[in-house]
């Protein structure tokens, strides 16, 4: 890291596009490999039940790398700043999803139908990688790794987006059925378990 005078903090925080942050190698879009196994059971001629096991493993995360090997850059004012490289990283950063997704539908009679779904899932790792308003965030796990070389840094656990149970149940009733006119009413009820509280696994 750059040091030696009172302007160290200012120089380290400089963010000049193409200077302090550079892309020197090709970048791969973050991706996920998914494997799904499903079964379907028909309930006579009136309905069906379906269940799917879903496995996802994410990789090629965006990352910022600043270490003793990235070197420095010279700023327009002649001062030096640490160079940060924008790269892909998936050797340290982990994110996995496992879920059981189920759904059913059943027509009780010509007017009334019931349907619903329920999922049980786990999202575990050490990097969320996204927020409600932002996708594909870069991890800072490679920024100054010499300051993070302790056992409990970047521990794996339940991710912020982990939500174990989600369910929905609805009913549709056909009030009016004519050759050219149809009218129906429906009732929908949703259920969801909470998410982990106070997680901080962004790898910054």
List its salient traits.
disordered N terminus; 1 helix; seven-stranded antiparallel β-sheet; 204 residues; mainly beta
Please describe what this structure looks like.
The protein is mostly beta strands. It is built from one helix and twelve strands. The longest helix is centred in the N-terminal third of the chain and has 5 residues, at 8-12.
Distance between the termini: 17 Å
Assign an overall shape. Answer: elongated
Number of strands: 12
Query: Largest sheet at a glance?
Result: 7 strands, antiparallel
What is the percent of helical residues? under 10%
Instruction: Please state the CA-atom Rg, rounded to the nearest Å.
Output: 26 Å
Order of helices and strands: HEEEEEEEEEEEE
Please give the count of helices: 1
Mean pLDDT: 86
Structural class: mainly beta
Beta-strand residue percentage: over 45%
**Can you tell me the residue ranges where pLDDT is under 50 for at least 5 consecutive residues?**
1-6
What is this structure, in a nutshell?
The chain is built from one helix and twelve strands, in the order H-E-E-E-E-E-E-E-E-E-E-E-E. It has 204 residues and is an all-beta fold.
What's the structural blueprint in terms of helices and strands?
Elements: H1 8-12, E1 21-22, E2 31-43, E3 47-59, E4 61-65, E5 72-74, E6 80-82, E7 84-89, E8 95-107, E9 112-125, E10 157-158, E11 165-177, E12 182-192
